[in-house]
Amino acid sequence: MLVALPAGQGRLPLLYAALGLTLCLMLLGSLLLGYRIYSPAELWDALAGTGGEAGTVIREYRLPRAVVAPLVGAALGVSGVLVQTLSRNRIASPDTLGLNAGASLAVVAASAGLGISSLAGLSLAAAVGAFLTSVLVFAVAATAGGLSPLRIVLVGVTFAGLMNALVEVVLTVNEAELQQLLFWLAGAFVDRPLNLVARSLPLLAIGGVLAAMLARPLDALQTDDTTAQSLGAPIRLVRIASFIAVSLLTGASVAMAGPVGFVGLVVPHAARVLSGSRHSRQILVAALIGAIYATGADILARFVIFPTEAPVGAITAVVGAALLLVLLRRRAA
Amino acid sequence: MDKRVASESGVSVETLSVSYGARTAVDAVSLAIPKGKITVLAGPNGCGKSTLLRAIRRLHPAKSGRVLLDGLETGRLREKEIAREIGLLGQSPSAPEDMRVEELVRLGRFPHQAMMQPWSAEDATAIEDAMFGTGIGHLRDRRLGSLSGGQLQRVWIAMVLAQETDVICLDEPVNHLDMAHQIDCLDLVSRLNRERGRTVVLVLHDLNLAARYADLLVFMKEGRIVEAGLPRDLMREDLIASVFGIQCRVIEDPVHERPLCIPMRNSSPRFRPVE
To answer: Pairing state of beta strands B258-266 and B246-253?
Structure first.
């Protein structure tokens, strides 16, 4: 999948086509593979609304996953690109800004404190938690001296650590619903009804459009502040807008699937290798790779501890770590 | 290339003050920067020369006074407008190591592009022209991390050049370079100035390089301009002693026929050895 194409003009359509095709294959796999393996004919029947038991499984269980996984992957991939450019730090990710930790804390608090157990309720709590955390991180970073990239990361990491610790505390004190919460906290695409997706879709759309609009200023922001400013980039405005895009994209994805780790960290690296440093390309490629990656991980999650389902967050982390090591070795060589 | 009607005014600074909190870094400075010439700001550390340079590009807000560009007050220009008029390269610019040379030079076109506007033929010409002018065409696909210091500095200058501004400000452009690359870089700047008529403002630490390349030399101390004029008129032993705190002998550089300062000992009482 990761062939090192030079990012020349001519190869670009080829790259998009290859990624698009891979994504289609992954989606097909996501619909056909699992506890039961179906044939394309059964899939056809299922999509036509017939097909008996196979039809029900595909429509009710597989289809939502095949929608949620690529959306979450794409959102996290794009938001990873934004965070890494925003913080000028290649090991930053939405996790670095504390967004996933904030979402987790909100979910655990809602479950333990307010007794919320419905999926819709928890998902709302997650989105709210991610938003509040982004506002908090942003406000502290901004007031403590001017939104420097380093400060954003430091504040984010601090809050992430604090909130993760609080999650542990709540979980330890409140063991009753531990099993369900632990599964949620690892991130999963299982049993996410499509209306949950419909609610997150506007957030994803706004975040995606915002990211696309920011592509060019973000190119300039890869340089130091003096250079970016001399080029005429309104750096403060770009940082604020990027922050909003990141929190929309991450908030929506965390609401759909919980904190799926490592996607936002690994995908931007792969996107850069394939598409170069221009954000207009990088963002699109990151969305495609993120979608492929999350869908692939979701398929894998059905088989690693067959017949039980593994949390997809664990898969993305293990695969992601391996992939990152390969990419880093390539860079060093 | 220059689409504007020529005017004599260039950049002029009028009683400009800039401060960092309570500290005044530039104190009521007035200076006319001649169009199409090289102006060099020189002075001891902390004299405000870099701050003045950055204030000319409006990277620091003026506390009072103003900067005029061909008679137009720069404070009224929008971000991208001023970026199309004045380019500035800071002391230690940075970009990701895996970025390619051409990608960095392309950034110079940022102020010329609207948000979603596609890449134009004009943009392409400008970056080719900038890479050709700085002699880095053969490096276009190299990653920045693989370049030498001298090559990298040329790439940065190409980026500023691609910005196609009439005025180019360079803050200590030869700071990290060895002697050969210092001369190489300043020769490049001086050639761009002569051949393309760009107005250049430099901050230079090395007084002899300043005297060699400046059309107008400006000595600064404690946020003020002590004197501005031709290198020949400014490179006086007494003036250098009072501005830089060093006793020296000034002779004529037999090659370039410019004044050359030979530093002897620190004349500032702070640094006098105890006898």
So the answer is: antiparallel
